[in-house]
Amino acid sequence: MPAKNIVGKKTRVLPGFHLTLGYTLLYLSLIVLIPLSAVVWKTTSLTWHEFWQVVTMPQALAAYRLSFGVSFLAALVNGIFGLIVAWVLVRYNFFGKRIVDALVDLPFALPTAVAGITLAYIYGPHGWIGGVLEPMGIKVANTRLGIFVALTFIGLPFIVRTVQPVIEDLDPELEEAAASMGATRWQTFWRVIFPVLSPALLTGFSLSFARALGEYGSVVFISSNIPMKTQILPLLIMSELDGFQIGKATALAVVMLVISFVLLLTINILQWWTSRHQQHN
Amino acid sequence: MSAIHLPSRQGNSRHSTTEPAWVRRSLIAIALLFIGAFLVVPLASVFAQAFAKGAGYYWQAITEPLAVASIKLTLLTAAVAVPLNCVFGVAAAWAIAKFEFRGKSLLLTAIDLPFSISPVISGLIYVLVFGGQGWLGLYRDADHPWFPWFQTWLNDHDIKIIYAVPGIILATIFVTFPFVARELIPLMQAQGRSEEEAARVLGASGWQTFWRVTLPNIKWGLLYGIILCNARAMGEFGAVSVVSGHIRGETNTIPLHVEVLYDGYDFAGAFAVASVLTFLALVTLAVKTWVEHKNAALNAATENS
Hints:
The complex is a heterodimer of chains A (281) and B (305). Chain A has 281 residues and is mostly helical. Chain A is 75% helix and 0% strand. Chain A has one domain (47-280): MetI-like (MetI-like fold). Chain A has 13 helices and no strands. Chain B is built from 13 helices and no strands. The radius of gyration of chain B is 24 Å and the shape is globular. Chains A and B meet through helix 1, helix 3, helix 4, helix 5 and helix 6 of A and helix 1, helix 3, helix 4, helix 5 and helix 7 of B.
């Protein structure tokens, strides 16, 4: 909570407002805003028709479908398992709990390239998991399933770390009241606990989804990157860049930026909703 | 990562309601299996593969000249990017947490932008500014350059930005931009400003107030922000890959070197170099856990006093 200005806005006791705000705006403009606006500048060098042709070419449409579909599935799976992990970490005691808690952040801390080669290797034909699955006829590396595995890996902490504090703050009296009024544990969970958790769960889902949409490093190794089949949107942009098709890459980047901004807006609204929910309880 | 705040560790001890034992055990088993398959197996596999050809091969892989060059470049990149973003983070947190002004939430969103942008686009925007067909690059030989002094200066000193070290550093600064600020802003907002105001009223100068009052209060959050910023700076792959140009021994950072080795089917070598980054990630997690522990102890102490 920002402290309310007791002294009044006219007299600032603390110094450095203009210096720090000025520096913040300057640095933000130089590093983020001006370079980002270059995307707009570059896009205006295309005609509307050219732009439309690039962003609706078959490869791009296939990439949107794949990116959205696999990111959605990965975020959904993370939503289910992330909720279980968060619940277990807050409510139960078991051996190695603190290590598991620390490990949850591994996908944040591990460089994406390392995650990428590791997942590609263990799910490959000679890897610990791929070596078991491939004889059973399940191919993971170089398929869409592999992309799903990579996106699930990087998205996990978002759900756990958004839901965990809300479970910690749950008022035990609510559950006690429900139990004393004769609700079964299952009813208490669905009718009392789950509605309180759902905004946080939705926020975590969106964060995980947004991260998965933009992911590059962990996917590039495990996916075979075949256009129309296993090429997600960031990889399509990368392949256009490698072919020095900067205009095309920029047009696709605009589509991605618009999606990112819409998601960012959604997440902000969800977080505002979550914090309001928490204040009410 | 932006929106995740450290969860406050205050588990409630009184459970008059809980699940039956078999449900508890199954849920713990599911959670451990999921964590095991998705996190522990990859982690163990990095080190297993790194030493697959023995310690001698491992040592050779991380000390050969190309590996050493990539390590040096990564250290240089982090050494520039982290302090710059650290100074920015402190300045931004001071302005946002200690003062009220219009457009604050817009500013907060703008600071978060690099987190919501794909790494590939983070690299692309610098190609669009400095690259051959870019904003500045286009006017290299034009009659009416937009930024004559800057472009002339770059040409005179033969400085390349894209496909060179400055581009790598810029892209890294971009992707690690919000880390320190995001840690400090909520922390300093929660601490309020009464302590600083008291110091000022008692006659301390602005700098004295910052060094003696604010900095001791935020040191753990600042340390955590720096650690996260550093981990991402050393590990960034996508954005750096776009602007690097992949010149071996010159513009390959550690993650790019790992890619080269992996694509060349030198798996033991790739995992050996990757294990260095994995070790860094584990240190980051350890520091995070330790800082959270410190903060929890600090909160408990202030609540009791």
